[in-house]
Amino acid sequence: xxxxxxxxxxxxxxxxxxxxxxxxxxxxxxxxxxxxxxxxxxxxxxxxxxxxxxxxxxxxxxxxxxxxxxxxxxxxxxxxxxxxxxxxxxxxxxxxxxxxxxxxxxxxxxxxxxxxxxxxxxxxxxxxxxxxxxxxxxxxxxxxxxxxxxxxxxxxxxxxxxxxxxxxxxxxxxxxxxxxxxxxxxxxxxxxxxxxxxxxxxxxxxxxxxxxxxxxxxxxxxxxxxxxxxxxxxxxxxxxxxxxxxxxxxxxxxxxxxxxxxxxxxxxxxxxxxxxxxxxxxxxxxxxxxxxxxxxxxxxxxxxxxxxxxxxxxxxxxxxxxxxxxxxxxxxxxxxxxxxxxxxxxxxxxxxxxxxxxxxxxxxxxxxxxxxxxxxxxxxxxxxxxxxxxxxxxxxxxxxxxxxxxxxxxxxxxxxxxxxxxxxxxxxxxxxxxxxxxxxxxxxxxxxxxxxxxxxxxxxxxxxxxxxxxxxxxxxxxxxxxxxxxxxxxxxxxxxxxxxxxxxxxxxxxxxxxxxxxxxxxxxxxxxxxxxxxxxxxxxxxxxxxxxxxxxxxxxxxxxxxxxxxxxxxxxxxxxxxxxxxxxxxxxxxxxxxxxxxxxxxxxxxxxxxxxxxxxxxxxxxxxxxxxxxxxxxxxxxxxxxxxxxxxxxxxxxxxxxxxxxxxxxxxxxxxxxxxxxxxxxxxxxxxxxxxxxxxxxxxxxxxxxxxxxxxxxxxxxxxxxxxxxxxxxxxxxxxxxxxxxxxxxxxxxxxxxxxxxxxxxxxxxxxxxxxxxxxxxxxxxxxxxxxxxxxxxxxx
Length: 797
Known about the structure:
Blueprint: H1 2-18, H2 29-35, E1 42-45, E2 51-57, H3 63-66, E3 71-73, E4 76-79, E5 84-85, E6 91-98, E7 103-106, E8 115-121, E9 127-133, E10 138-144, E11 150-152, E12 166-168, E13 173-178, H4 218-227, E14 231-236, E15 239-242, E16 248-254, E17 260-266, E18 281-287, E19 292-299, E20 317-321, E21 328-334, E22 348-354, E23 362-367, E24 370-378, E25 381-388, E26 393-399, E27 409-415, E28 425-426, E29 428-430, E30 436-438, E31 445-450, E32 461-466, E33 472-477, E34 483-491, E35 496-502, E36 509-514, E37 519-522, E38 537-544, E39 550-557, H5 563-566, E40 569-575, E41 578-580, H6 583-586, E42 613-618, E43 621-623, H7 634-651, E44 655-665, H8 667-678, E45 684-688, H9 712-718, E46 731-736, H10 746-758, E47 763-768, H11 778-795
Parallel strand pairs: 40-42, 40-44, 41-43, 44-45, 45-46, 46-47
Antiparallel strand pairs: 1-2, 2-6, 3-4, 4-5, 6-7, 8-9, 9-10, 10-11, 12-13, 13-14, 14-15, 16-17, 17-18, 18-19, 20-21, 21-22, 22-23, 24-25, 25-26, 26-27, 28-31, 29-30, 31-32, 32-33, 34-35, 35-36, 36-37, 38-39, 39-42
Helix pairs in contact: 7-8
């Protein structure tokens, strides 16, 4: 008996040691101060550019807020108490700045501790509408721009779990998704199930990614029916008129002339395999009063699709109103059955149907690649956006909607990763229907707003592009020592724009500029949100890996550091691998050394205050040119990237080769575990919310389209779990217990930790309660930073 008691005591002692029962910890003061700095506000301008909204953001929620009731249904996470999404970001206050009168005032009349979201300008821009959430409901509010006075616009509670929430009809009317008045009590989970949960397949291949939060049983289906149903209601002052019976509406968009509604309503049968976006859906056109005019499509359950990232439904998709017409509906129809592997002359067709919707649909264009978007300009011009994900290609073409017999005219056909030749995004303007349409000058020029990647780093620009000559002329471009980008084009004809300007030492502030007159007026003067970082040195590093591919990283060094006097530093290297089909694309410079350094919760830059040299955005390109897939030699290229980065920081006389840590989040965590398993370059690793066993994502992951059964060797060799017996470098595994990301199930970290423990590795596993793929609660974030700091101090510094 004494031996038994002794054995139990030893066993209990081991368990306490091996599985710490920690309370939330806080990191060192220098890290804490940065983490708790108040977030900088964001801004939103009206169309004329004479009124600016200053939107104050929320700081981190508490773990208590994050622990509110939550249901995970059909790919969504909802708060059952208020019929809205859980974990949703929000604003805490709105200020209005009249730039002409030079007055600034707050929006008043709001409830205490209002959680504000969905801000939308009225057609006349004299009012703004937004939703206000509390623990029990979500309501619609309106504020007068001239005075800032706000009031609740409807007594009806809104349902934001599906659909648009609300849309302006005119300056006084809305269409809203309301919680049905007589919805009754929510379903009650039975004490015992009525039977087993079953699924069945009939021999037809239905590959699906490893999605999280799917429906799991009949009770989940009842919950989905209850919490996602709404009634479409027109709100006109005190009058609230329902225009539909309750249903699961996922769209209700007014036509530009406000005479019709495009309505999409889901129905059973549901799926336990795919999310709500692939549930059966009836799409119809209704009068604004709710009367049905025409059923456009009744799409069945969309579980079975061909393989490939460009695979799609064989049913009509992407129904939307033409922005340049009073009431014309458009949609896309696959011509290849949705199968990107089929060899066909045309892959998609763009169709349209105008009011009164009694005629035959018109074919506006056919495309050789998958059509994923249309930008409307006018009756003579629209832009088609096509993509081929397998080849990483993007195309932009023009069509003349008034002459559908004419073939599209190609403007650009380029690699999606060729940032140096990215022409940018066409600038839009509002038309007579208050819809955004592509701006076209009298000379036939588009205005293109581009990120401006170059060998010197990103230098955003605004350019004119002539549709006939296909020549581009840059009108304005960011210049050192600033990083500046156009955020709003107030008057495209006069070239009056709003820019956001920042530098290494100055946070983002906003300017209104007249590019023709070359004048600039500063609109904001936001202070440095993290003055502790003043004096931190920032440098863009350029170097090569041994096969000649150019690489970059952004280096941060402690304030006052001098390598000649202070010697070599410990290094924290943070990275995220990316796949490319071209070595030249992979070699392009990304980022700008002139951007302001703002440390957010997931950043490695915290450790520059702890005496580390930090290499952020350390490039880890994986290249597969021609018929080769990037992942065919993933490990070899990953090692080359890491060796080049380690050699660079060491050759500069800054980094100590014997004190380098590597880390990353998500795919960066996957990278970290692989580097520790296949190299001896690092003293420690930090892997947050990663996937480590690729056989648990058998139908593709990241940019890998092949299934496990098509490329088993690739799946095995890329999985650090397969080499857990070789992974002896200390690794810290952190994971959100409620991770919602496809593939990064928490079991990924749990299984890798068990494998490392079983093979004598050095590891620590930390699960953050209630946290998703990204972390939110103040307690979680501070504890994560404490864990990382303890790990780096113990094993690296």
